[in-house]
Amino acid sequence: MEGQGTQQTGKKVIFSGIQPSGTLTLGNYLGAIRNWKQLEDEYQCIYSVVDLHAITVRQEPAQLRRRCTELMAIYLAAGLNPEKTLIYCQSHVPAHAELAWILGCYTYLGELQRMTQYKDKAQKHAANLNAGLLTYPVLMAADILLYQADLVPIGADQKQHLELTRDIAIRFNGAYGDTFVVPDGYFPKVGARIRSLQEPARKMSKSDPEDTYIALLDTPEAIRRKFKRAVTDSEASVRFDPEGKPGVSNLMSILGAITGDSMEKIEADFAGQGYGAFKTAVADAVVAELEPIQNEHRRLMADKAYIETIMRASAERASAIAARTMRKVRRKVGLAPFSL
Ligand code: ATP
Ligand code: LTN
User: For binding L-tryptophan, which residues are annotated in this chain's numbering (predicted)?
Assistant: First the structure.
């Protein structure tokens, strides 16, 4: 189904979310949040703090609560304008869970078992291999389809989940007639897959050990130290070759994502220089990029009442959009009508 935009704005809809499951990394920033701001005028953007997704892995309750507020503050500190963009907490709109249940009945077990993220997480969390880890992508599909999103900005790691969302939407539309907009992915040209500083074969992930990632709120000293210790190779030449030189190429991607420079330009700029100077330049660029966000974040965290006001207002507006989809879905599926 073609997107018609929200009734309020007539603009195409963008939806994305981040789990409050750890400190945000430079990967989350470059692969996701940084690109969100640029979309805010052209689209009706809806960005969620997806706390229901986060509890697929055990979370300490007080910490989870704090991280939700912290992530909201990061959305705001990264420059999102809450007058235009909806930023809210997923669990504040119960329709996410309701639609996830319904869509789960239109998703095959085989489809879920094939998901790479599920296979990875099943290995990592063998002691708590709960059903939520398997049905995680159904909840993600519900997030997206609930708002009739046209575009979903995500990092490359979420491509498979988006494909599944499309399949579920097409299947449902096929069975009941046009109900959901079939969304497209929106991938950043640079920064889509930032890798671990210690094991560049893996993506940079906030649930890995601390020295493998740069946290958005790391101090400049910590950022410099981590880049200094980042894995490279013994060739001592700054050359972009993701296969042969994954560590150096990852650092080049980070620098390029921030400065906008091409890999060729970075190669030329650092020709004949060792890794020391190069790593310092990468660290300087990251420190300068993050500093204003960190300052604004600190300011916002001192005003939790303001964050809560935004969270509540956005959740109300999001609920109204979600309710429209739910009325349609309930009717199509044949759930008994009711009004309170
Ligand atoms: P976890 O490692 O705990 O599973 P995560 O770090 O992958 O979590 P998410 O909340 O799952 O974080 O992802 C938020 C957004 O950040 C998604 O759009 C995802 O594609 C993007 N993202 C995550 N890691 C990276 C990365 N290393 N490079 C680029 N984008 C990333
Ligand atoms: N699964 C995503 C987070 C996420 C999301 C979404 C992204 C949950 N729901 C809806 C885009 C749209 C992740 O792990 N990065």
Answer: 143
Q: How far is CA 74 from CA 68, 295, 310, in A?
A: 10, 11, 13
CA distance 192 to 165: 20
Q: Tell me whether residue 11 is one of the annotated catalytic residues.
A: no
Q: How many CA atoms lie within 13 A of 58 on its CB side?
A: 7
Whether 228 is catalytic: no
User: Which is catalytic among the residues 121, 226, 245, 279?
Assistant: 121
The atom number, within ligand 2, closest to the CA of 153 reads 11
**Can you give the pTM of this predicted structure?**
0.89
pLDDT band at 339 (very low <50, low <70, confident <90, very high): confident
Find the ligand nearest to 187 CA: 1
Q: What is the H or E stretch that residue 15 is in?
A: strand 13-18
Q: Which ligand is nearest to the CA of 96?
A: 2
Does the CB atom of residue 144 touch ligand 2 within 6 A? yes
15 CA closest ligand 2 atom index? 12
Using DSSP, state whether 87 is helix, strand or coil. Answer: strand
The separation between CA 320 and the C-alpha centre of its own chain, rounded to angstroms, equals 23
Give the range among 29-38, 124-133, 184-193 with minimum mean pLDDT: 184-193
For the stretch 279-290, pLDDT in tens is: 999 999 999 999
Our answer on whether the CB atom of 152 is closer than 6 Å to any ligand 2 atom is yes
